[in-house]
Amino acid sequence: MFFYLLDILGTMAFTISGVLTALNKKMDPFGVFVIAFVTAVGGGTLRDVLIGRTPVGWMQDLNYVYVITAGFILAIIFRKKLDKLRTSLFFFDTIGLGVFTLIGLEKGLDVNLHPVICIALGTMTACFGGVTRDILCNQIPVVFRREIYATICILGGCVFFLLKALDVSDGLLYILTSGVIITVRLMAVVFKWSLPSLGKN
What we know:
Blueprint: H1 2-24, H2 29-50, H3 57-60, H4 63-77, H5 85-110, H6 115-136, H7 150-165, H8 170-190
């Protein structure tokens, strides 16, 4: 139940992230809903296809559709209160990043994948929805910019397996892993950490 609630939390967070991005692009209601939907389920859909879990998760559980719809409606209703859209977008995107990385790691373990592959799966689960969102909104995906993003998911995956090797309880394992991802992401933005660019000056 705890793991399922984490999944719902991540879905809601990425839904709101998608809505805020689409509102910044001045899309119509249908466009906003589509962006919100693909942001919320894009990473999980790719993950499920790669591990052969079909139909994919959101097709087997309508609660995900309900959560996405509710998140869409709430974000639209309170859009004027979210006056600092850039800050709100960053906040919800960061929560989704931490939660969905964790979910991808666990899904990989469920099908007995190697830890390295589990970390890759967790990173894709967390990042692919945002990649799809940014491409559809005609902007360079954040994962491909100098900003530290996918690297944090990889770090979180390493922390996850380190703690698991130390036999940390599941509840604490989940909290610490997602906490590390969220904290490092916040610190990276506050202190302007970034990866070096390989482009020409």
